[in-house]
């Protein structure tokens, strides 16, 4: 998965969200339509055009205290409107590591 | 063990207070992330996929049991109950909260542990042989010199904003266990014709997207001059090293572009200008540091105690002993390597319970000392041979007696896409699957020494270039693929592996590695010929043929 740290040009080809890490604890968060952050992907504001993506990212970036390193990530909208991460990297961020840990998570 | 003096303790405690204030200002919004990032990096704090990652230094790989217990405490109190030992004698905690980091740092500072310069563009943790001070045939304990360099370079203003990170490793043994040839500066302790102790200095090694084996810049630098010579190298690097392109900023690029002769000439001129400076170490300064290392009061013990003779009838004990127990410089003692590579486990991880229990065992059997090696395993450096059977039973109960040290399942792996924000592909599940494929330790023993190294991206934290078999995760159209190299090595004969062909998908990696190993078993000219020697003798072609003929 190409790191979004290398994300230079903003051009989306499908539904996308803005995600980041919460500042105080680093937890994965998603930008909501209410201009806040949520740990639930289902709460995220979904954009479908590059202009909307740029605007959402700009608005999220302005909140430097709440979250760190916002970037645009692809999502899939399943039947019934359920939002799923759009690639493996985002699946791992949303659901946790793919390995069995030696201790309970 | 090394005992910090008052200056060190003050420095560490002041850093905790400073960082506490920085975190407070960050959380209040007084500091922006751009302003804060460099500060957190100077304290070993990264931001990864799921959380902040906290990297703690274990200078030259030496830990007291008090320190190990404190690491267990941090894992339990501030993280998720485990830590990950890295390839550079650090431990990483993967789930730590920024708001709690100052408290974690303060808890560590109480036992003399810190995270200074474990990230950022500065001089990183100076690493060494995990068998330092106990390896037979060693010139002298290399940690004395690691510590001298650590003291000189910690918070040194000239080295705090280098073009890129800078790593030094030191070995004092013929067999290099510190991988000095893949470091920015590698130091090999040896004696000159006059019997004086000094260093062969190597420079410009490193992996990442542009890998180079370090080149010898000076065959002998007297020990008393090692700080000034290192400083001369760093001054030349600081002056000419590129800051405009992160991918060309490491010293290896400068050495490559200038050529080692011209680079050496520049360093020599700089060094001469420094003359007989205050950086020349006098005998007293060296002895002061030496005196702060304490060594066990070894007993006079027999080479072959009765306990060992009796335990030789236990095949499980014997298999473990032959694999994980190594000769010690003192008769009657052994060095015991503890594999952190259980079948199906993430390489290099240890739980808080394992760390605490191991600390108890180290107190009982190893004079309260534990070592950390760059292969992501631990070691007990001073175990009386008579205690080996009892130690084996205790380690086995803890899951720390896997008899696979240096074998095919003793895999070095970076955290990969499961944790790392830079990764393109996963490393740990590949390692886990390989340990299951080669789970039979007797078979692994028959295969012999074979190092598999896995990196989840080109930054090469898993040292894939120098694995006997190297596995590099790449991305192709959103899918995980893996490039396979063979023939690399990280020891005194260090070299990069050779790519065998096109990358293979995630699901096929373990099959490919099995094919390579089977090809080796068929091709080696005798059981003692190591994998890496068979590759050297035959080249990659027979292996390429085996892997790709049916794919």
UniProtKB/TrEMBL annotation, chain A:
It holds the Pfam family DUF2849. It comes from the Bacteria. InterPro entries: DUF2849. This is DUF2849 domain-containing protein. The lineage of its organism: Bacteria, Pseudomonadati, Pseudomonadota, Alphaproteobacteria, Hyphomicrobiales.
TrEMBL record, chain B:
Its EC number is 1.8.7.1. SUPFAM superfamilies: Nitrite and sulphite reductase 4Fe-4S domain-like, Nitrite/Sulfite reductase N-terminal domain-like. The keyword Oxidoreductase applies. GO terms for molecular function: 4 iron, 4 sulfur cluster binding; heme binding; metal ion binding; sulfite reductase (ferredoxin) activity. Keywords: 4Fe-4S, Heme, Iron, Iron-sulfur, Metal-binding, Oxidoreductase. The keyword Glycosyltransferase does not apply. It comes from the Bacteria. Coiled coil: none annotated. Pfam families: NIR_SIR, NIR_SIR_ferr. Residues 52-111, 346-396 form the Nitrite/Sulfite reductase ferredoxin-like domain. Residues 119-273, 408-547 form the Nitrite/sulphite reductase 4Fe-4S domain. InterPro entries: NIR_SIR_4Fe-4S, NiRdtase/SiRdtase_haem-b_fer, Nit/Sulf_reduc_fer-like_dom_sf, NO2/SO3_Rdtase_4Fe4S_dom, NO2/SO3_Rdtase_4Fe4S_sf. It is an enzyme of class 1 (oxidoreductase). This is Sulfite reductase [ferredoxin]. It comes from Bradyrhizobium ivorense.
